[in-house]
Amino acid sequence: MKNLQEVWPKFLQLLWIPVLALFEYFRYEYDLMAGFRFLLLLAIVFLVYDYLQFKKHFSFFQHALGHTPATTTLLGISLTLAALDYDLAKASILMMVLGDLFAGVVRKTLVKEKADHWKSFMACFIGCLIAGFLILSNPVFVLIMALVASGVEARIFILDDNLFMVIFAGLAGQILRFLAF
Known about the structure:
Blueprint: H1 2-7, H2 16-29, H3 32-54, H4 60-66, H5 69-83, H6 86-109, H7 118-135, H8 139-155, H9 161-180
Helix pairs in contact: 2-3, 3-5, 5-6, 5-9, 6-7, 6-8, 6-9, 7-8, 8-9
């Protein structure tokens, strides 16, 4: 039962899928700027929440490292959507959602030590592959982006890994696309 209590928060990652769907709705129904205005409004809500949490803590670093994953994830999503080709941005966001979810569930249920283990890396990689193939048709792009996202998930400990997972996976896909043409 303890594992279930530790695992269920990882499923909150799935809430980024409706955020992406709402961005898509505003993008198609109105224009691209309406989608970014929606993300900006969401960022303001997260920042107000973070500010209220900050007032409870003495150390800024304690707060920044422990209480802002939604804000940093939204920053990564926004930067990726703004800077990269749309299909690559969507793929990298979905890779972050499913890869982090799979890795978190495996880490909380199957891995005993605190440090990331090959099992959680492989779970993240499988989640990223699934997400990548839902959006992209090029297996080389999906494979490279999934490897980059999984590597970031396994190695980033200082800040929220979701920020870097989205950006680096999308950037890897964008570089591959640039080199392919």
